[in-house]
Amino acid sequence: MVKNMKRKVTKAIFPVAGLGTRFLPATKSIPKEIMTLVDRPLIQYAIDEARAAGIKEFIFVTSRGKSALEDYFDHAPVIEAELKRKGKKDLLQILKATDMESGAIAYIRQQRALGLGHAVWCARRLVGDEPFAVLLPDDVIAAEKPCLQQMVEAHAETGGNIVAAMEVPHDKASAYGVLDIREDMGSLVSVKGMVEKPKASEAPSNLAVIGRYILTPQVMEHLHRKKPGAGGEIQLTDAIAEEIRRSNNVFGFRFRGQRFDCGSKAGFLQATVAFGLARDDLRDEFEQFLFGMTAMRKAAE
Length: 301
Ligand code: UTP
Description:
Blueprint: H1 2-5, E1 11-15, E2 36-37, E3 40-41, H2 42-52, E4 57-62, H3 67-72, H4 77-85, H5 89-96, E5 105-109, H6 116-121, H7 124-127, E6 132-135, E7 139-142, H8 147-158, E8 161-167, E9 177-184, E10 188-196, E11 207-215, H9 217-224, H10 236-247, E12 250-254, E13 258-261, H11 265-277, H12 283-300
Parallel strand pairs: 1-4, 1-6, 4-5, 8-12
Antiparallel strand pairs: 2-3, 6-11, 7-13, 8-11, 9-10, 9-11, 10-12
The protein binds uridine 5'-triphosphate.
């Protein structure tokens, strides 16, 4: 049993079947996960983070209208041939980052958007009897050591379930799943409960869960029996809360890094600025522009 708890995490689920309504009309025809921060789609950041953490099998839970995502990880023979002909080695190299080993990537359909918990459950047969990671691509995390890698290292010590968590202002807690803390050990927190989108006055702490998880197969079993929770959706949080009650083996993990909520417009814009400024080829021009904008605004005030 203990051996099973500390099995290596090599599978990751990417739930990408949501409707992305906060980005309408764009998401009428473009999957949210294909929208770009500078020149890379959100999904590429999540894949790179998973790879750095040692993930070998990538499971996408998709839905109708997401075929652009599947194409993104396919070969692009026409573009590649043209770049080769023109000797554009640097661009060919950039394209290479999107290569996936044959058989490493699997797509499962979620026929109806019944919630994140339901999307994760759709991947149950591919996950089998192993611990697995879940990454929500609209949470983009800038970090020296990628967030999931930090979590995999912590998991090698703790086993069980780990959810990424960060402190948020109390009045913002109702937008998140929130942890009820049993013992605070610094970066790790042992958890005695978890509530999805609590009223601000009822939030058990201000430690909010964000879109990175390492979970045991038992969580899939809880999802199997789940009925819709907050917002009429089948909530992953409810299944994790049940696992806390059953096994007492759930930890919150304060990751080191900056998380951007790219599922919201304001978060997406902030991430665009941060990732633009982080790029050597863009920094100077972009910084000058932002500086000029700020000066103009101040003058206008
Ligand atoms: P969100 O709560 O951000 O929902 O889902 P959404 O549909 O993507 O976007 P909005 O709120 O309508 O703008 C969080 C993550 O869970 C996935 C989403 O694709 C996203 O990665 N999800 C959500 C599913 O895969 N299926 C669902 O039924 C719901």
